[in-house]
């Protein structure tokens, strides 16, 4: 059994890993490797954001009654991250190295800041307020195995 | 649980840190002119009045100026809370401090007591206001954490350095405090507190944060994060009583930091070519070289029987110059290359949280600071650094150093202006789209 902070933080690191590999491949102009790694990253990120938006955030909002607080800011940042992911998709399709690297630096910094807020504040608060946190994570893991 | 810690938009307005950043290169441009007009004599001793002016131009005018601006921004990002009344504090402290540094430099060059007195008042007020605001946050509101603890030690060093500076200046205009020995040792403590305490510990604290954040590097080992800052600060205090021993240990601990830096950088996941990484590596290599130079037997320095093909110049001057130019300035420039686009982007991005459609106007980070322009800065820095070493060995080469210095920092100033200009033009577009 793993806690919310433990599991979700681990997922952030996995995303970073795929992301960095894709970026390094683009810097080397190895476009097929870049695409493979990028897709791994994109699907990991999509799943992670969905776990937050569809399960963890609503549960947290219900448990604390805070619907317009931190989770709302996190949702808006997800929206911005998705927009950058879209632009990166386009840059990759166009094999535009400079554009990709400029965008990837941007997304990386935005993601790191976002993750830091979640890891330092939001996840610990969730662990405190959600009594069934570990079950929720088991649910995520079961979904992943399918 | 303290919910106010979750205020995600505690960032002070961007023009506040930027005014510190933009003024910094201007001080080095003044330094370059000082080098040009002082001639060879400047390099004969570290006690030359113009050399003191030059030192303070670099350390106060550039390094401290940038660090003051960066700290305004870092406290909210890392600690979740910024200083109170940021506009008032930043504006007044920046104005008083800038005027203070210029007056101080002039007071050294012109050896005028009234200027010294004015500098003393301006600097104590400017730094005092700034320190007061920061200390209030660090004591009352800030959470715990290794970086935050190092910030506290860096700020403590800055306070000590300021107090010693005030004592030294007061002594120059004839006010002496009993029981204090005004000798070179006091000046050395003052200098070391600034270079290794204030600048050095702050860099250590910042490295804990920025290497994982910008380069997806692993965290520094726990014992380094917990003890390096405290250990450095303790050694600085020990230096007052056990000069030689403490200084040696300070060099070794900085060397340990360098090895850790190289290890962490090597383990980073983001391997994409990056100028800031080049700056970090240069900085770490510099610390290791300094260890070598420090522990080299004295016979290598200014002796007629040097084992090298020539005797090394004055040891203190050489080591101080290398530490400031190749270590401190390198780290700060590497940071600026990250911070300038990062701040510009983050501020604009925060505005688009409410108006998502305006996201389309925000350029990506490399547009704020072109990567190629950053690499040019790096090589210019190496060139002017090498010319500094040359001038220490052969003072008649001073004009080459002045020229390279001028070029490098005009270039840095141009990069900053470009970044700011783009920020304001995008900001305007977002304003228009909001009103539309
Ligand atoms: Fe998230
Ligand atoms: Fe997350």
UniProtKB/TrEMBL annotation, chain A:
InterPro entries: Hemerythrin-like (IPR012312), IDEAL_dom (IPR014957). GO terms for cellular component: plasma membrane. It comes from the Bacteria. Transmembrane segments: none annotated. SMART domains: IDEAL. Pfam families: Hemerythrin. Residues 73-107 form the IDEAL domain. This is Hemerythrin HHE cation binding domain protein. It comes from Colwellia psychrerythraea.
UniProtKB/TrEMBL annotation, chain B:
Coiled coil: none annotated. It comes from the Bacteria. Keywords: Membrane, Transmembrane, Transmembrane helix. The chain crosses the membrane at residues 20-45, 57-83, 95-111, 117-139, 151-169, 189-211, 223-242, 248-265, 277-296, 316-337, 375-393, 399-424. This is Uncharacterized protein.
